Amino acid sequence: MVDATMFDKLENLARTLRKDDRPFGGIQLIITGDFFQLPPVANRRQEAKFAFEAKSWNKAVPNTIKLTSVFRQKDQGPLPPPNTRNKFLIIANFVFRVRDDVE
Fold first, then answer.
1. pLDDT by residue (tens digit) across 46-100?
2. Burial category of 81 from C-beta neighbours within 10 Å (exposed 0-12, middle 13-18, buried 19 and up)
3. C-alpha to C-alpha distance for 10 and 35, rounded to whole angstroms
4. I need a surface site. Which of 10, 49, 61, 88 has the fewest CB within 10 A?
């Protein structure tokens, strides 16, 4: 989990590298996650703050969608063959395989 300090540093770095004063240097972000599931990790010298508590959050994230319904998924067995699978799953699996090979 990215804490508020790291979020602000990343936002500043993106603006600096891209030489663009827009939030994150104009890079479009899609930020997802259950922000209340796990608290952020911070060093011992400072209090951990959630990313949405960052100074740059409101400017960098103009649109927020809050999901309020809880949906539980049930295990439906193994995935169908690749030719019938959702394209997103194929891409996601490829990305994770490549990342594992690199590490």
1. 788 888 899 999 999 988 888 777 777 666 666 666 665 556 666 666 665 544 4
2. exposed
3. 18
4. 88
Count of C-beta atoms within a 10 Å radius of residue 5: 19
Closest CA to 64 of 101, 24, 16, 32: 32
Q: Which among 14, 40, 16 is positioned nearest to 27, based on CA atoms?
A: 14
- Structure token digits, residue 57: 């959050």
Residue type, 41: V
Residue 3, beta-bridge partner list = 50
Determine the Cα–Cα distance for residues 64 and 62; give it in Å rounded to an integer: 7
Query: Which structure tokens are listed for 41?
Result: 């990790």
Domain residue limits, the chain? 4-74
Q: What is the DSSP letter of 50?
A: B
C-alpha span between 39 and 49 (Å, rounded): 8
